[in-house]
Amino acid sequence: MTHESASSLDEDFIIHNRLEIVQVLKDLEKQKVMLNVSFNHGQDYFSTSVISVDADKNAVFLDIGRDQAFNSRLFASHKVTFSKDSGVRIRWTSSHLTEVVLDDEEKAIKIALPHDLIRIQRREFFRLATPTINPVPCRIPIPDETNPDQERYIELSLVDVSLGGIGAYAPDPLDPLLVEGASFDNCKISFPDVGVTSLTLLVRKISPVSMKDGSVRHRIGMEFINPSRGNQGLIQRYTFNLERNAMTAA
Question: Could you say which residues form the signal peptide (predicted)?
Fold first, then answer.
């Protein structure tokens, strides 16, 4: 169980699928993207790039620096963070880095293919906190298969919003239909002074959160799936209002 923090927002965009991870890394290789690397408890930094990805051998090869003392600290580190912070944000952590010699006799860093990584598109990264007093409601309809004319609802309260999705709280106990990977159609979000959306939402991440009063809630990270232009307009107007209100209050 975790306490909510700013970093918990990133968890909604963790990729676990191996094929997706390989594709992300190969894109970094193809585009010759420079990666920021930090280790030694954040005391050491350098830049590198992906040389090649060998999915069959579960290995990724990266450029290595020339400073042997620096490299020794790097290879002795148990936690090394690789990140791309411009445009689409990408980050993962590796351990047990080794030095290898490639076929062209050049030295390189070898890491195991990451088990997971974070990939956040720019439009999804800028999240805005929604009001805690009178929180924005999100209503998820659940059809009754035995009686199509009736349906029940899952009620959520928003905690943040972006152009790519929402973060919301669900009470404990969690509804059994709210699981990672589940999608729901015709979800209604009532944005104050803007309007009501009708969206398809995909559950990306669920995390239990301990509240200050000792109670437990579940933070649900949800992605908008192919929102219509009308819904996009509502979301954009609401996020604009939040930004304007924040600047006015500053």
Answer: none
